[in-house]
């Protein structure tokens, strides 16, 4: 018999601060995403962007050209024309408009394949 040596030390008394690094990171990531969404379109105000916003902003916010490579955009635009047909828009883009939009996307697309 003896005095227990396994006494627990009292807690420091300070309540643990829970505004931890991870919550700060969480908020930063959220802000980062918000920033991406609001990233302005390149060449804003140019005629090409007006066509792009007018046609590619009909069903959703116009996506930033950096969302895809040029090769990716070509498939996306074809798919969007089909999406439009499914919604009863027989011809989303005239030949001119498709050329304008693809040229705009090509110039500002993410680089690579
Ligand atoms: C008729 C409505 C409509 C129009 C007009 C439209 N979209 Fe879409 N878009 C959709 C729908 C529906 C989806 C989700 C399904 C899908 O991805 O096909 C989508 C998704 C997307 C996505 C995200 C999916 C991905 O592959 O990255 C991009 C980018 C996009 N559209 C670009 C465009 C562009 C560029 C144009 C103009 C040429 C355009 N959209 C015009 C309906 C439309």
Structural notes for this entry:
This protein is mainly alpha-helical and 113 residues long. The protein has helices at residues 21-37, 47-56, 70-86, 95-108. It has a domain at 42-108. The longest helix has 17 residues, at 21-37. The chain contains 4 helices and no strands. Heme C is lined by residues 55-56, 58-60, 63, 67, 76-77, 79-80, 83-84, 87, 89, 92, 101.
Describe the structure using short key phrases.
mainly alpha; 4 helices; elongated; binds heme C
Please summarize what this structure is:
It contains 4 helices and no strands.
From the alpha carbons, calculate the radius of gyration and give it in angstroms.
Answer: 27 Å
Number of strands: 0
Helix content: 40-55%
Bound molecules: heme C
Biggest beta sheet attributes: none
Classification by helices and strands: mainly alpha
Give the SSE string.
HHHH
**Head-to-tail CA distance between termini:** 77 Å
């Amino acid at each position: 018999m003896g005095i227990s040596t396994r006494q627990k030390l009292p807690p420091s008394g300070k309540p643990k601060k829970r505004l931890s690094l991870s919550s700060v990171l969480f908020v930063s990531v959220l802000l980062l995403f918000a920033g991406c969404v609001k990233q302005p379109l390149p060449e804003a105000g140019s005629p090409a962007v007006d066509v792009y916003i007018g046609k590619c902003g009909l069903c959703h916010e116009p996506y930033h050209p950096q969302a895809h490579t040029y090769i990716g955009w070509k498939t996306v635009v074809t798919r969007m024309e089909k999406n439009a047909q499914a919604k009863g828009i027989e011809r989303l883009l005239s030949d001119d408009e498709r050329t304008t939009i693809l040229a705009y996307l090509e110039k500002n697309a993410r680089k690579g394949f």
